[in-house]
Specification:
Structural Genomics Hypothetical 15.5 Kd Protein In mrcA-pckA Intergenic Region, Chain A; Alpha-Beta Plaits; about 20% helix; 4-stranded antiparallel beta sheet; 3 domains; binds uracil; 6 helices; about 240 residues; alpha+beta; 9-stranded mixed beta sheet
């Protein structure tokens, strides 16, 4: 016997999920007759529809349902990794194209950190990427005050004490330039508060600049200037699963 795997959802939830307004705002539009399913006006907000098959029109325009959205943002400095902030601009404010109202950034970058930030509403994927148990690499480019040495590399590889109950998980350091100001790429698999800055602080070197380059298989598109974003390609999205 064929199994019915269609997803049915209330019309008002469908529209609210897609960012057309609050639940009460979209209910009003529905009762006014401004919403159609398959060309037929529907005035009952609780009407269920099949997101795969039914076509919804909202105020005359097609309203396509997307369960998940995935954006790659090159986060600029000065913007906070939050969904809402009283004072500062958030990374979500930069995603002009967004539809879903339940988007969030996957992990936090500090206000002064730049680079790769995935923005989605896919909670399971976020969990897989962030859980230290899953050992997903996060690669950062870093500029620090002071000379980086092979000893620093060893200390990070062993797992450095950053003042928590346990040392940080082993991290990989690839020194790109060593001098009064040094440059390197560091690979970590966890994401504690100020993790990279605290690791270098433990080595006696302060971070001057930090940019995330990669998270798992997802690599920052260098074509994106700070503040710019784009949707993930199908290949990028599948690669993360
Ligand atoms: N580690 C930090 O110290 N800051 C970040 O923003 C990300 C990782």
């Amino acid at each position: 016997m064929a199994v019915d795997v269609t997803v049915k959802i209330r019309l008002d939830k469908y529209l609210a999920d897609m960012g057309y307004g609050t639940r009460s705002e979209v209910k009003k539009e529905i009762t006014r007759g401004n919403v159609q399913i398959n060309g037929v006006p529907v005035r009952r907000p609780e009407t269920k529809l099949d997101t795969e098959k039914d076509e919804v029109t909202y105020q005359g325009n097609s309203a396509v349902y997307e369960e998940y959205e995935y954006y790659m943002l090159n986060k600029p400095a000065g913007v906070v990794s939050a969904t809402f902030d009283r004072k500062d601009r958030t990374v979500l404010d930069l995603i002009g194209e967004r539809q879903r109202k339940d988007l969030f950034p996957v992990g936090r970058l500090d206000k002064d950190t730049e680079g790769l930030l995935l923005i989605t509403n896919d909670g399971e994927l976020a969990h897989r990427l962030l859980s230290p148990k899953k050992h997903v690499d996060k690669v950062y480019y870093v500029k620090v005050q002071g000379r980086l040495t092979a000893e620093d590399e060893e200390r990070l590889a062993e797992g450095i004490d950053i003042g928590e109950a346990r040392p940080a998980l082993p991290a990989g350091l690839a020194i790109l330039k060593s001098g009064e100001i040094s440059e390197a790429e560091i690979t970590i698999q966890e994401g504690k508060f100020h993790q990279v800055k605290r690791m270098f602080h433990a080595l006696g070197k302060e971070v001057l600049y930090l940019k995330r380059l990669r998270m798992g298989t997802l690599v920052l598109d260098e074509g994106l200037k700070p503040g710019q974003y784009r949707r993930l390609t199908e290949k990028e999205r599948e690669g993360l699963c």
